[in-house]
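Lab notebook, bench 4. We co-purified these components, and the gel suggests they stay together. Before we commit to crystallization screens, I want a quick structural picture of the whole thing.
Request: model the full complex, all chains together.
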Amino acid sequence: DTGVSQDPRHKITKRGQNVTFRCDPISEHNRLYWYRQTLGQGPEFLTYFQNEAQLEKSRLLSDRFSAERPKGSFSTLEIQRTEQGDSAMYLCASSPSGRATGELFFGEGSRLTVL
Amino acid sequence: AQSVTQLGSHVSVSEGALVLLRCNYSSSVPPYLFWYVQYPNQGLQLLLKYTSAATLVKGINGFEAEFKKSETSFHLTKPSAHMSDAAEYFCAVTDNYGQNFVFGPGTRLSVLP
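Here is the predicted assembly.
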């Protein structure tokens, strides 16, 4: 399978714990995006990488959230001291660089439940 | 700043009937527009995209959309609904650098037998 893969697919944690999600983009794509989606809503932009550089962060990305993309390959999204409001689906997407004739290719998401 | 509105959070149609899902956008630059579909517990899949070529865009599964600059719209249509079309549909807009995709709130399509 050469699509975008995310791990884990589901995570249940207690409030205050830290969680980390991993995303492996399509190998030739150097743009990588993280989105958050809550029930009944569209995806909300969190952050964007071009290769290893984090070029844009949403104000939704509080200081409890951190994302990395070492070596411009896979990416991780860590949430520290989780809160119940963090419960959501976290979606990763990738795309090739250049002018935007290309769409985003999404993974199946990582669903977080904070108890 | 770019934004997307989708009129109607839930649309129900009978099997075989016309599907019309509405999308209006706001953009200060020429937009690139997309429709995505999401089935339960899955990621988003691209249906079709407009990237400043033909204004009538055909996508997968018999869907098409027409870009109307004067109306700032990009409505999605399908002549005859199928049960398998039941899903959540999202309209999205980006600029020509593709760095920031903005999604609408989505429209849930139900297809009745």
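DSSP finds no helices and eleven strands in chain A. Worth comparing against the SEC data before the next meeting. The two ends of chain A are 33 Å apart (CA to CA).
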